[in-house]
From TrEMBL:
Segments forming a coiled coil: none
Pfam family, one: N6_N4_Mtase
UniProt keyword Transferase, yes or no: yes
Name assigned to this protein: Helicase ATP-binding domain-containing protein
Protein's organism: Dyadobacter linearis
Highest taxon of the lineage: Bacteria
This protein's record includes keyword Methyltransferase: yes
Length: 825
């Protein structure tokens, strides 16, 4: 594999595991959009179809599996919620499928009968042997919304091996993207852990709270569109919307209030008249219980205003159902858990055909799959909760295509449930945003994943740039491409802090070494670079590589405790594989308390509970690799690095020869590091330098300008005012609004520690001669080049991220002009 192919392999578009069908084999009853989706599904082999209510998901599922059986043979299975079986049977007759048998276990399979249907309860109980089927379709796959249960794990283990598998639903939940990732795992598109690492940054304070990386948004939506089709109307695929234009939906919010006893908080002693039912489950349950008569009375008043209309009433608790039934009497039928399947289906079918006016059920029981739009256009939620998927599914039992009347949705809630209502409506908006993202791609590119891949290939790095000074060159390029064109034996020393595997993506394009799914893939990319580093280095000279081992949290390693990934060992193996020899491993101390504060893995309290689960702090390392000299008589480099004993003293040698190097921690400052600081931290650091060193007006301006670049220079007060040395001048009145810095922090992504300037200085002094080319293939903001120029060498830096490259030019110019370094104060 050449390098370009390796980079293109990073583009993750779902593979096609199915087959092509002849268009004339499609049943003529299918609408144009249904024909396209069925062909796309079969060719993909494992796909998700997220089509809005009324677009014909049942027909598409049936036709997809009919054609798979026709081409490949074998049995096919439809798994659907309660009450949907009749829809499959009815639509199956339209397609000429014949009998679809309902089964409770696979012992009921019949010779010569390929079509079967079951419900999720039988899947949960493990009664269905997945190996008996060539294709399985999960209709409204609610069981896959959460991958933490034993039931779901069993589904993945068994149904995950069915050759053709599909998920159909109208409402993938906008619950922080987790459901979409779970579908991808079930369909075999991408492991959930890989998807989380690749696309999302996590909130360490809230489990499951995912934020899509800004720089990965485009890739994520194209990846999604390669295996999941989102369609809200036929025109999304370029077809006529006639018959699919929905009537208006009017939402009526009914807030009820009632007298409550005054509640006194035991801890604070404060009294409240209206509790917050969102504060705890007990409070929510109590509010439901006390408000029930008032909510049911409001429901009755709504129904009485339209006595000729049909209504479906939704509730969440059994005692709510009994109260609704009591008030509405025999005109209302209920569907509930303890009923027989036959009785449930009798009531469902009767209401859908207009045989009676009122139906009552829970959204969790009856919210999915049923078609009530032909005789009913009114829905009442006698109570609300946080379950958005159940809610939106229930809404669209009546508000769906083929509905001819304006629909009315009534939400009944109490004055203590305003937060629940706000959250529910917020999730609805997120759902609409999700649909919008996906349908816009479908509208632009259709169901053509090859076009998605072409669009993503445009994210490859192009457009090499360079800047030069008398003692340096800074190049904006992929380091593999750049070093492949360098002359043999042209570099005197390599000093670099390489990316730490896939821990952090520095650049938005696929060339970034951090843009790899695993450490193994990272080192595959390093395998393209390290041979060029070896070739370009002078014989006998050194590559000093800064690394750090990586923390593997329990969610990453699956062990339940934190462990360490020996990244430094992998780096050693990589460089040795390509001809380098390891000379030494220099250890640089880190602050164990600071590490614990940022990783929470070295807790003193946890250590006291069980010392066996706790490790120790992670130092940094500089790995010293040597390219062998041409001759082996005395092992000297072809061009030795020589020092006079006057200039390189015995004392200095003793410290440098030691395997343990201390560091001042001084680094070039860059905008991303500044973003990590509160303004109060900046002020403290500034006070320390301004009261102990000679004042430098130009440095003061430069630091202020740097703060302004990252939008941290206030407009209402001075962030770093001149400090007074006289006691008669008061300069300790802090006007720093620390919220400003705190807000800035919230948008931070992970940031790896750059190499310290004094460590770079020691490597350059020890391992290079004045005038040597000192190179860094991962130059960042230019620390190595900056230090090399200061020390009379020629700095050669290569950096992929254009913003960092521009910073590196400024630093190189400042070193050229022998100005003071803009360091971390």
């Amino acid at each position: 594999m050449d390098y370009q192919n390796f980079l293109e392999a990073k583009i993750r578009i779902a593979e096609k595991t199915g087959f092509d069908i002849h268009p004339e084999d499609l049943h003529p009853i299918l609408k144009p959009h249904q024909r396209d989706i069925v062909q796309w599904s079969i060719k993909g082999g494992r796909r998700g179809i997220f089509a809005s209510f009324g677009l014909g998901k049942t027909i598409m599922q049936l036709e997809t599996n009919r054609l798979i059986h026709m081409y490949k043979g074998g049995n096919v299975l439809f798994v659907c919620p309660l009450g949907v079986k009749r829809e499959f049977v009815k639509d199956g007759k339209k397609l000429g499928i014949g009998r679809i048998k309902y089964i409770t276990n696979t012992d009921q399979l019949e010779e010569g009968l390929p079509y079967y249907i079951t419900n999720y309860e039988r899947i949960r109980k493990g009664d269905i042997d997945a190996s008996k089927f060539i294709a399985v379709t999960f209709d409204e796959a609610s069981c896959l919304r959460n991958l933490e249960t034993d039931t779901t794990n069993a589904i993945l283990d068994t149904f995950g091996h069915v050759p053709f598998r599909f998920v159909h639903t109208a409402t993938p939940s906008p619950n922080r993207y987790l459901e979409l990732i779970n579908y991808a795992e079930y369909l075999g598109i991408m492991d959930r852990g890989q998807a989380l690492t690749r696309f999302f940054q996590r909130d360490s304070t809230t489990a499951g709270n995912l934020t899509l990386y800004k720089k990965r948004e485009k890739e994520f939506w194209f990846w999604m569109s390669s295996w999941a089709v989102f369609i809200t109307k036929p025109s999304d695929l370029g077809y006529d919307d006639s018959g699919y234009v929905l009537p208006p939906l009017t939402i009526h919010r009914h807030m009820v209030s009632f007298d409550r006893a005054t509640k006194v908080d035991r801890k604070t002693g404060q009294s409240t008249f209206i509790p917050d039912s969102s504060s705890s489950l007990p409070e929510a349950a109590k509010e439901k219980r006390l408000s029930l008569p008032h909510r049911v009375a409001k429901m009755k008043a709504i129904i009485d205003e339209s006595p000729d209309d049909h209504f479906i009433t939704w509730h969440h608790l059994e005692h709510e159902r009994t109260e609704i039934q009591k008030i509405l009497g025999d005109d209302c039928k209920s569907v509930f858990g303890s009923q027989s399947i036959d009785e449930k289906e009798k009531h469902i079918e009767g209401f859908s055909e207009g045989a009676f006016k009122y139906l009552s059920s829970k959204p969790s029981i009856l919210g999915s799959g049923c078609n009530f739009q032909y005789h009913c256009h009114n829905a009442i939620f006698v109570g609300i909760n946080y379950e958005f998927n159940d809610f939106i599914q229930a809404v669209f039992r009546v508000y769906r295509f083929m509905q001819l009347h304006e629909c009315h949705l009534h939400l009944i809630f109490t004055d203590a449930e305003l937060e629940i209502l706000r959250t529910l409506e917020e999730k609805w908006q997120e759902h609409l945003n999700l649909q919008s993202e996906m349908t816009s791609i479908i509208q632009d590119f259709g169901l053509n994943s090859d076009l998605y891949e072409y669009q993503l290939k445009r994210e490859m790095f192009t457009g090499r740039q360079e800047a030069r000074g008398p003692n340096w060159i800074q190049v904006n390029n992929d380091s593999v491409d750049e070093y492949s064109s360098k002359k043999d034996c042209s570099i005197g020393l390599i000093v670099s802090s390489i990316p730490f595997g896939n821990h952090y993506e520095y650049s938005e394009n696929y060339n970034c070494f951090g843009h790899n799914e695993t450490n193994e893939k990272f080192f595959e990319q390093m395998d393209f670079l390290v041979p060029h580093l070896y070739r370009c280095l002078k014989p006998g000279r050194i590559a000093a590589i800064h690394v750090k081992d990586r923390i593997r949290y329990s969610y990453m390693n699956g062990t339940g405790f934190t462990s360490i990934d020996p990244f430094s060992d992998d780096t050693t193996q990589c460089f040795r594989k390509h001809g380098f020899h390891l000379l030494s491993r220099i250890t640089i101390d880190t602050d164990v308390v600071q590490e614990n504060n940022s990783t929470y893995r070295l807790s003193w309290s946890e250590a006291c509970k069980d010392m066996t689960k706790m490790g120790a702090g992670l130092p940094e390392y500089v790995l010293i690799f040597r390219k062998p000299p041409t001759g082996s008589e005395n092992a000297y480099a072809d061009e030795p690095v020589q020092h006079s004993k006057d200039q390189y003293t015995l004392a200095r040698w003793q410290l440098d020869a030691h395997a343990h190097w201390k560091t001042s921690g001084e680094r070039l400052i860059d905008p991303e590091y500044l973003k990590k600081l509160d303004l109060s931290d900046v002020l403290k650091a500034w006070k320390a330098i301004d009261t102990t060193e000679r004042y430098d007006y130009h440095k003061h301006i430069e630091i202020c300008e740097k703060l302004d670049q990252v939008k941290m220079l206030p407009r209402t007060f001075m962030a770093i005012p001149p400090q007074a040395l006289s006691t008669e001048i008061w300069d300790d009145v802090s006007r720093v609004n620390t919220l400003n810095g705190t807000q800035t922090r919230k948008n931070l992504t992970k940031h790896i520690c750059p190499l310290q300037l004094d460590i770079i200085e020691r490597c350059i002094e020890r391992y290079s001669n004045p005038g040597d080319v000192v190179a860094d293939p991962f130059n960042g903001i230019g620390s190595v080049v900056y230090q090399a120029v200061k020390m009379g060498r020629f700095g050669d830096g290569c950096e992929l991220k254009t913003e960092y490259w521009k910073d590196s030019i400024r630093h190189a110019k400042s070193a050229d002009a022998k100005m003071s370094a803009l360091t971390l104060f």
